[in-house]
Design brief:
The complex is a heterodimer of chains A (344) and B (500). With 344 residues, chain A is mainly alpha-helical. Chain A has 14 helices and four strands. Classes of the chains: A mainly alpha (344), B alpha/beta (500).
């Protein structure tokens, strides 16, 4: 066994004269701390807010800020799962459909079967997690590419939601449930925003401090190296997709609470917003890179854009064009910034 | 752990005892009843050509591969690891040839991957960083442990890899080509480190192609050839040519053809050729009929240089002159028009398209140049002729991926021969190819030069460099450090310039 040795030992070897200095210094790389990859997008967010404030003074008010927060809360919750999946090097196209399915289950259980609303909520959340587990199993043991597995689930979950709701919205929820999403604490702080922020904080802590959180980055960088280093790659993969499913389920519950009805078309296309938010935030679709803070910035950019453009009466068709351009621009600017930083 | 010495010829309980290991892969017997005994406190140098089985043996030792037969004992007990983690737990740690670090994680996180110090279930970053700092010091690295690995240079990464291995307190430590990416300073640190480890009773296996390193670290030498242990020495003071002969199985003279005879006509000339970040100020000329070898260590910029000459990654300044006229080579298409051909380093991803047939591959460049409606039959005839010319064994309608390495290489050569290039550049032409195919390829190269082509070869294998070249251009860290004539070339001369 090798034990700690003093630096004395190295200088006594007498081989080359270079060893006169016992503490050999090898090439030290630049120790300047790199800015986080969410820097560029964050600057873009600030710039966007400034521009929108000029265009419409009512933009920059506390009420409106919280408004935006409430509007993106659901996207934010789901994007947490999306971040974990993308950092792992995977992708999840089924989150929108799982959202709809969870909402449908709450509606069906409570309104059609008379089940206690909170039990229905629990069931819906667990079902979301279960759908995620199925995704994970297809990917790990079925060896389906993540794209295909989650594409299949996207179709299956959406189909099940349509079946359960018989293609029609389902309304009639108690106020206590609806308050999950429409209540304002103290009259001004949206409850859904609180839920989103809390989940974000937990996720951030998990990514930074939990060994399995750090392991996601390892797996995303190089699956094989991670596996050979003894990391439980299969468990991690299934766990990540299960979490994404669970969070999508929570998103569906919040959505139903917010709208007051379970819609079969709920969440359509939200998976692309999730991917956009996560990538704007600095994640790489190849895996290994990304951050919760970055995703938060990405979600806010999308929210700010939609809200600001609405305030300026921009048609929703043009909104889509603009949002697309902003997404590309945000990632482009960040790429350029990183290349410049690497050169220096 | 006290160092134990073996009595000559007798088996001891201490150390790692490998007996009769056989490993078969489809189409090849990678290891055939190999024995190896690694004693504590001693270093065994394991040498052999590419494909001899060294890496396979190491993968069996670390549990990445399961042997098909044979048995291993560690300290007298059966040793059968399920994977590198179990091997490390038992005390056998492998330091890979290809870096197995995660670029996006920090140095400390990489060192402790999968076994970070924890406090109440959360990663204890402070403890991890301070423990990492201690280990980094032992390998002579003065870097912050919380730096992302991708920001470190390759030599630093190699030392981090070594630090990672040391942090697992190994009984047996296997180094697989550890100095491939290190400068001389770092290599000296490594020799010191290995000798200290031996003093502390660690058993070392040192795999290397750099035969001159062996006397610095090894106490004995084991030679593998084509999966078989063909011999060795109980002492490391053995001449390079003896080692090469054992590795290769025949005397060096037989493998290489007689040198070609260059004419005086200058076909290609490089003047102050540079590419930012890759190489600078390269100057040499190439004659018709000449075989010019570009030698140097990994990372010296040789592949980048030939990629610049053939337009795959163009130079940023300087001139290329073909037959006296300056030319602009900005794309591979340009280089083809000027009569150049590049046989790339990685034949599977850059040489042949694996999922199409051999015939389609060989005909590919020529087909790209034909205008109008292609006469498939005449093309097919030409393809068949050139296939014979290179001695390719295989059917023309075989998929490229089913061919052996040697035959794939011949296929790549064949496809360029159809265009009758005047300048042919080979980047590591015999990497990973067995001895038989190697000499066939040398013969082809020789034939090309004799028939009037000008040949450039990039090679990392010193015997090959010395055996083939009329002249040797040596690169070190992107700079041209010297040009040697065949008569003045020797291993030492080349290595001295390569590490300058």
């Amino acid at each position: 066994m090798v034990d700690e040795e003093t630096t004395q030992a190295s200088s006594s070897s007498g081989a080359a004269s270079r060893t006169a200095d016992p503490k050999r210094v090898s090439t030290a790389p630049k120790t300047k701390k790199r800015l986080p990859t969410s820097t560029g997008p964050f600057v873009a967010l600030i710039a966007l807010c400034i521009v929108l404030t000029f265009m419409s003074p009512s933009f920059f008010s506390l009420t409106n800020m919280f408004n935006i927060g409430q509007q993106v809360a659901i996207l934010a919750v789901i994007a947490i799962g999306g971040t974990a999946v993308i950092v792992l090097g995977g992708i999840d196209l089924s989150v929108g459909s799982i959202l709809a399915l969870a909402g449908a289950v709450v509606g069906y259980l409570h309104i059609m079967l008379g089940v206690n609303i909170w039990l229905a909520v629990l069931a819906a959340a667990l079902l979301g997690a279960a759908a995620g587990v199925v995704n994970g199993l297809m990917i790990v043991y079925g060896r389906l590419p993540a794209f295909i597995a989650t594409l299949a689930m996207m179709s299956i979950a959406r189909g099940l939601a349509l079946v359960i709701l018989e293609g029609k919205p389902l309304s009639g929820y108690p106020d206590s449930f609806r308050n999950l999403a429409v209540y304002y604490v103290g009259g001004w702080l949206p409850s859904s925003l609180i839920i989103a922020v809390l989940l974000f904080l937990v996720a951030a802590a998990y990514f930074r401090w939990k060994p399995s959180g750090r392991a996601l980055f390892a797996v995303g960088a190089n699956y094989e190296v991670a596996r050979l280093s003894g990391l439980p790659v299969s468990k991690l993969t299934v766990g990540v997709y299960a979490t994404a499913g669970l969070l999508a389920g929570i998103g569906g519950i919040l959505m139903t609470a917010r709208l007051g009805s379970a819609q079969p078309t709920a969440g359509m296309g939200i998976e692309l917003d999730v991917i956009a938010a996560v990538v704007i935030g600095g994640a790489s679709l190849a895996g290994g890179y990304g951050s919760i803070a970055g995703t938060a910035v990405g979600v806010m950019i999308i929210g700010v854009l939609r809200n600001g453009l609405n305030l300026n009466n921009v048609s929703s068709f043009w909104q889509q064009v603009i949002i697309g351009i902003v997404i590309a621009a945000a990632v482009l600017v960040e790429n350029i910034r990183q290349r410049r930083e690497a050169k220096s | 752990m006290s160092a134990m010495t073996a009595n000559a010829g007798g088996a001891t309980e201490a150390g790692l005892e490998v007996s009769g290991i056989t490993k078969v892969f489809p189409g090849t017997r990678a290891l055939d009843a190999v024995d190896l005994h690694v004693q504590y406190g001693r270093a065994v140098a394991l040498i052999g050509e590419n494909g001899a089985g060294k890496s396979t043996l190491m993968n069996v030792l670390s549990g990445v591969h399961k042997a098909d037969s044979g048995v291993m004992h560690l300290d007298g007990k059966v040793y059968k690891p399920a994977g590198p983690r179990e091997a490390a737990d038992a005390g056998v740690v492998l330091i890979h040839q290809e870096l197995s670090l995660l670029p996006n994680l920090t140095v400390a996180e990489n060192i402790f991957i999968g076994r970070q110090p924890q406090k109440r279930g959360l990663v204890d970053r402070t403890a991890m960083n301070s423990q990492a700092a201690v280990i980094l010091e032992r390998v002579g690295l003065n870097i912050a442990p919380d730096i992302e690995v991708e920001r470190c240079s390759v030599p630093v990464q190699q030392l981090v890899e070594i630090a990672k291995a040391l942090s697992q307190d190994p009984k047996i430590l296997v180094f697989d080509e550890p100095t491939a990416s290190l400068g001389q300073d770092e290599v000296d640190i490594l020799y010191e480190l290995v000798n200290r480890l031996k003093q502390h009773g660690v058993g070392i296996v040192w795999i290397t192609h750099r035969l001159d390193e062996i006397r610095h670290v090894a106490d004995e030498i084991v030679v593998l050839r084509d999966g078989v242990r063909v011999g060795g020495w109980e002492d490391s003071h053995v001449s390079t040519s003896q080692m090469v002969e054992a590795m290769v199985g025949r005397s060096i003279e037989d493998i290489y053809p007689d040198p070609s005879e260059p004419t005086g006509e200058i076909i290609l000339e490089l003047k102050s050729l540079s590419r930012d970040g890759a190489f600078e100020n390269i100057n040499f000329s190439l004659h018709r009929g000449e075989i010019l070898v570009i030698a140097g260590l990994v990372g010296a910029g040789r592949s980048e240089l030939v990629n610049a000459i053939t337009g795959a990654a163009p130079a940023t300044s300087g001139t290329i002159e073909i037959k006296g006229k300056a030319v602009s080579v900005k794309s591979p298409g340009d280089s083809v028009r000027f009569g150049m051909a590049l046989i790339p380093e990685d034949r599977r991803t850059q040489g042949l398209a694996q999922s199409i047939t051999l015939a389609d591959n060989i005909g590919l460049p020529k087909r790209g140049l034909l205008k109008g409606i292609v006469d498939n039959r005449s093309l097919a005839r030409e393809v068949a002729t050139v296939k014979e010319r290179v001695g390719l064994r295989g059917h023309l309608d075989q998929l490229a991926k089913t061919l052996s390495g040697g035959n794939q290489q011949k296929g790549v050569i064949a496809k360029w021969l159809l265009l009758e290039p005047e300048i042919i550049i080979f980047d590591e032409p015999t990497k990973g190819i067995d001895v038989g195919a190697k000499s066939a390829i040398y013969a082809i190269i020789h034939e090309l030069a004799t028939r009037g082509a000008a040949v450039i070869i990039v090679s990392s294998e010193l015997p090959e460099v010395l055996g083939l070249a009329n002249r040797i251009v040596v690169l070190s860290r992107g700079k041209q450090t010297g040009i040697l004539e065949r008569s003045e070339a020797s291993e030492n001369a080349v290595m001295a310039l390569a590490v300058a």
